[in-house]
Amino acid sequence: MIATHLPVLQVAVPLIAAPVCVLLRRGNYAWAFTTVVCWGLLAIAALLLDQVMSGGTISYRLGGWVPPIGIEYRLDGVNAFVLLILAGTAALMMPYARETVEREVRPGRQHLFYAIFLLALTGLLGITATGDVFNIYVFLEISSLASYVLIAQGQRRRALTASYQYLIVGTIGASLILIGVGFLYAKTGTLNIADLAVRVPALGETPAVLAAFAFITVGVLIKLALFPFHVWLPNAYAYAPSMVSAFLAATATKVGAYMLLRFVFTVFGIHFAFETLPLTEILLALSLIAVLAGSLVAVFQTDLKRLLAFSSVGQIGYLGVGIGLASVTGVTGALVHVFNHALMKGGLFLAAGAIACRLGATDLSALHGLGRRMPFTMAAVVIGGLGLVGVPITAGFVSKWYLVQAAFEEGLWPVALFVLAGSLIALAYVGRVIEAAYFRAAPPDAEPVREAPWAMQLSTWAMIAGSIYFGLHTDLTVGIAERAAAALLGGAP
Amino acid sequence: MTEHLVLRVISKLLIPPILLFALYVQMHGDYGPGGGFQAGVIFAAGLVLYGLVFGTAAVRAVAPPRLLVVIACLGVLLYAGVGVASMIGGGAFLEYGALSADATHGNHVGIIIIEIGVGIAVAAVMTIIFSVLAEWR
């Protein structure tokens, strides 16, 4: 019986767990409870993905109201896959959370930190699971408001301005999405995605649909942080608490990519977006600038967390390339990269947080000689970094392979060239980290540093090992992503 | 505001009807204009007026912040609890009809409990926001 309720439990369980965390009042109790909840969510997500893969699309009627009038949770291969990424990331980061939250968050606020974390997770899971565009907006606000609070918990005062900047930009993005949804609702009288997918293409190229498309696309690109809408991202990731940087880097922009896929392919339809309108050209141009500019700026950063943040700007460009190519191979590449980048960048930010926990700083100059002083953590940074470059046997290679292949299929060999150039620049910034940690000696007066606590290493290595495992065994990720991409491009969800 | 005798007397007269009106709006929510959110805001407005005239320490004495946090959480849990209860009753999440053998009766009970959850959560959160801003140093 419970199996039929899994889609709503995926979202309702963290929502219920958040106030319980507040009532628990103790950081440790809240941590233990959140850990149980997150692993439960991972189990739910895995069961859902299994149901979708074997039985096809699942529809859940919230409150028993029949869609398209009532709110529907609708799971297909695409969002079941993203749900697994979200829940998996949260679950893998929980061992890490305890150590870092005890160090970085004020004692009286630790239980509240977990409550807000669960709310952010609720919002992200909700955006992904729901089949209703207004519901997407509501969950977007839940996740965004929670993220602003989480980022503001950073230890340095600049966390406050970073959070405020994200608040302003994020609110503009969400408002644009809401305006676009309003246009769609005015024209079609429905908010249900499956229903919109039937009605919107029938309206053709009317001004209201064009306006809705423009508002929603720009709004989602702001949330996705694709160039030139990325300005909020580097500061937010650099100054947030370690746990938050890693969690948001692994999940928030991925949900943005999912929203873009859902709106462009399912609601507006591939014909409207890519043939009537020049979305391919726009997305490819912006994405390639993001890949080159983001990676180049990353090369010149002096702080590891900021370097990783700008690298994220570049990596988001790869998602845009895959989506912009609008072919099954391209979207497969984008979806696989969503998964792989979540593992790699999540692992890297966790490692950066582990370094910050022992050194108190993540300046590249502070990393001198760290290859000997914190060998395990630095090894994780190296492997994760090689993944960003796209070295074979890492997961990053798999996603780039599909992106390059997709570019060649379309005969756009310059795009493939740009993707490869992005990898070379990634080699430069990863090289700077390796140089600082392995080829520079520690200053003679440096204080002895211990290796990071085992719980932090456990989370870091779980993500990094995952990025190697899924570089070697691509059946799961590519298999699911290919089916999901084929379903998206086939039209009906 | 010890010198403003008129304000003190008038607000003492006004606050009880405001709180009462909040309860009226709360209970009328299911078949008239009103509901939990509006009721919660009106109730909090009574406490805010009390705080403005008699000082935030007085509000603290009536509604301690720790208690308000607990009430806010319980409000959310009450709402979500109805959703879970309707799943146990054999319906979908928040399908109130499943709360009772008679679907109409179930709908009635479900919406009243949910509105109470919303009402107490909103009243508590509004009061917390007021206290935090008023006591900002």
Structure description:
The complex is a heterodimer of chains A (493) and B (137). Chain A has 493 residues and is mostly helical. Chain A has a domain at 278-493. Helix content of chain A is 79%, strand content 2%. Chain A has 20 helices and two strands. Chain A has helices spanning 6-24, 27-55, 77-104, 110-129, 133-152, 158-188, 193-203, 207-224, 232-239, 242-268, 270-276, 279-299, 304-325, 328-359, 370-373, 375-389, 395-409, 413-439, 454-472, 475-489, and strands at 58-61, 72-75. In chain A, strands 1-2 form a two-stranded antiparallel sheet. In chain A, helix 2 (27-55) packs parallel to helix 4. The longest helix of chain A is centred in the C-terminal third of the chain and has 32 residues, at 328-359. The mean pLDDT of chain A is 91. By secondary structure, chain B is mainly alpha-helical. Chain B has one domain. Helix content of chain B is 77%, strand content 0%. Chain B contains five helices and no strands. Chain B has helices at residues 5-28, 36-54, 56-62, 65-88, 103-134. Chain B is elongated and about 60 Å long. The chains are: A mainly alpha (493), B mainly alpha (137). The A-B interface holds A 5, 8, 12, 15-16, 18-20, 22-23, 60-64 and B 69-70, 72-74, 76-77, 80, 83-84, 87, 91-98.
Residue share in helix of chain B: over 70%
Query: What's the count of strands of chain B?
Result: 0
Instruction: Indicate the radius of gyration of chain A in whole angstroms.
Output: 21 Å
Outline of chain B, from the CA principal axes? Answer: elongated
Proportion of residues in helical segments of chain A: over 70%
Looking at how many chains there are and whether they match, the oligomeric state comes to heterodimer
Structural classification of chain A? mainly alpha
Query: How many individual helices of chain B?
Result: 5
Element string of chain A (H = helix, E = strand) = HHEEHHHHHHHHHHHHHHHHHH
Question: Which term fits the overall shape of chain A?
Answer: globular
Number of helices of chain A: 20
